[in-house]
Amino acid sequence: MPATAYVITDRISGSDSSFLTWGNLRGLEQRGITIGSHTVTHTELTVLSDAHALGELRQSRATLEKHLGHPVQWFAYPAGAEDARIVRLVREAGYVLAVTTHPGSLQHANDPLELHRFEILDSTHVSGLAALLK
After folding, report:
1. Of the candidates 37, 38, 53, which has an alpha carbon nearest to the alpha carbon of residue 86?
2. What is the 3-state secondary structure (H, E, C) of 20-39?
3. Would you give the DSSP letter of residue 66?
């Protein structure tokens, strides 16, 4: 089953051992998991200036691409906070797909930076996943 891990780049290989390392991320990719960006610091982009938000978007993407060795084009909005201004900045930063926290499987080809998704948590369990897949 395809999956994507959206990562906060400032937390990779840091002092907190509960976060992933670059080696962990490469291992996930070897197992078929796609790595996407979730900004540098996980600050809600809607509260930042255009310049600061664009910096978060570009720096996170560049860091991931440098360490993983390939383009990173997927993005997840921190806390699901997005609006037309932020969607425009995500596009400007070069992302081609972005996920919101809006639940659902109905997608619109005209809105690739506002994709809906189902969030799968540790508490979802197999029965919860089965219900989402019906």
Report:
1. 53
2. CCHHHHHHHHHCCEEEEECC
3. H
Provide the strand spans (E) within the chain: 3-7, 33-37, 74-76, 97-99
Phi and psi, residue 104, nearest 5° = 135, 165
What are 87's two structure tokens? Answer: 């969607």
To the question of pTM greater than 0.70 for the whole model, the response is yes
Neighbours of 108 (CB within 10 A): 9
Structure tokens at 75: 């993005």
Across the chain, which has 134 residues, the per-10-residue mean pLDDT values are 91 90 96 97 97 98 98 96 97 97 83 88 88 81
Question: How far, in Å, CA of 56 to CA of 54, rounded?
Answer: 5
Cα Rg, the chain, nearest whole Å: 15
